[in-house]
Design brief:
By secondary structure, this protein is an alpha+beta fold. Helices cover about 40% and strands about 25% of the residues.
């Protein structure tokens, strides 16, 4: 190799390492983040029947609010796991699945194919306002909300049913 090639490779390596260090300093630990007393964002979204559902409709209940989309490969298993978790928790914790910026037909067809339609609360957010209000940047994203309306945990990326159970139990304690 000539000297110019070696210098270019060196610059690329140093630049790449610098980017990794900076991005790791700014990234939430393990792709999730504990939140300090941040209120859940208010919303008024429609369910599959066209009825408006608001955050206030769940006042006094612990919530799990998941942002998902039919194009998200991780959402497929996660939605099925959320249904399992919802069935296990009964009415102690309410799980709300908010579809990101897709039509009712796309979202409902997807949940019908998974066999989960009607098993928990599904809402449509065609403007993607909820996802933006939680500072979303990965898929899926889930916030765990106390009965007081505080976000106590924000999960970026997919989770399995065991983690869902653990986080939901923390909401109840």
């Amino acid at each position: 190799m000539n000297k110019v090639t070696v210098v270019i490779i060196g610059i690329l390596i140093i630049g790449g390492l610098s980017w990794l260090v900076i991005s790791n300093q700014n990234a939430p630990e393990e792709s999730n983040q504990k939140v300090e007393s941040e209120k859940a964002p208010d919303f008024a979204l429609q369910n599959y029947d066209g009825e408006t559902v608001q955050l206030a409709d769940f006042a006094g209940k612990p919530l799990v609010i998941n942002s998902w989309a039919a194009w998200c490969p991780f959402c497929r298993k996660e939605l099925v796991d959320f249904v399992t978790a919802q069935k296990e928790s009964g009415d102690k914790v309410i799980i709300v699945a908010v579809d990101r910026a897709e039509t009712r037909d796309i979202a409902k067809t997807y949940t019908d194919e998974l066999g989960v339609t009607g098993e928990m609360v599904f809402l449509l957010d065609q403007s993607d306002s909820f996802y933006q209000s939680i500072g979303g940047f990965s898929m899926p994203e889930t916030v765990f909300v106390s009965s007081d309306g505080d976000i106590v945990f924000h999960k970026r990326g997919p989770m399995n049913v065991e983690e869902m159970r653990e986080r939901m139990q923390q909401l109840l304690n």
